[in-house]
Amino acid sequence: MELERMNTDKSGEAEEKENSERNTRVCTSCDKIHESISKWMLPENARETYLERANCIPPPLFIISITIAELAVFIYYAVWKPQKQWITLDTGVWNSPFIYRPDKREEAWRFISYMLVHAGIQHILGNLFLQLILGIPLEMVHKGHRVSLVYLAGVIGGSLASSVCDPLQALVGASGGVYALIGGYFMNVLVNFREMIPLFGVFRLIFIVIIVGTDMGFALYRRFIAPVNGPQVSFVAHIAGGLAGMSIGYVIFSCFDKNFIKDPRFWISIVAFLVFLVFAVFFNIFLSPAN
């Protein structure tokens, strides 16, 4: 019996040791991921604070969830609706209850739900690529409530700006939210350039300029040059989303280890956003050519 007890104790110790080693390997992998993310997302003086409390729980649920939702809606219209949605926008999407349309402005949810619908395969692939490659690290650092606030500010700002500046055109795609994330990240890299490893800083700025320039080029081409095979869509959400990110997003992402609600810059940007929102609503009700 003593031999059996000794064998049991030894096997228990071996199992415990194995579990401990496995957990150590997992933690080491997570630590390396967080260390890499901190170098890309944060200035040097904030990295230590982040690494002390960094963990993979919760995972970046907002970005993952919104990406799955956008992909699911695209697949629905591409596969189950009778149209060639893989290539370009078509009548099925035009009749979708999600798309923003100037003649359906009284259906207020469209000012947000348009982000779920995309104009073609190249449109959704571009948005999802940027959304995942930038949104996941941002959410791991700043958590979902901050990233979702910036993303939705870009979505709402994009549709309202489009309804004012390009009032006769429809709007689809998550570009407003994606550009809000880009704008917030870009401003933080620019302001904290010397503290974010200059070589990486230059590479990041060049990468952002190339991606934004290419995407804006496609958006302008679709809007003004490409043959009209279906309803045209506005590009204004790109610009407005970027501006929302460079104001609200910059403040939120710069307050990494602080409560951004206590930052006066946050309230200044929110007041400016609300003033624009009130003006856009007034314009849509009383002044819009779409009336």
Question: How is this structure best described in words?
Answer:
By secondary structure, the chain is mostly helical. The protein contains eleven helices and no strands. The protein has helices at 2-41, 44-53, 61-80, 91-94, 110-113, 121-142, 144-165, 175-191, 198-225, 236-254, 264-287.
Radius of gyration: 23 Å
Mean pLDDT: 81
Number of strands: 0
Strand-pairing-aware structural class = mainly alpha
Largest pleated sheet: none
What is the helix fraction of residues, given as a range? over 70%
Strand content: under 5%
Taken from the alpha-carbon principal axes, the silhouette is globular
Give start-end ranges of low-pLDDT stretches. Answer: 17-26
Total helical elements = 11
The first-to-last residue Cα distance is 90 Å
How are helices and strands ordered from N to C?
HHHHHHHHHHH
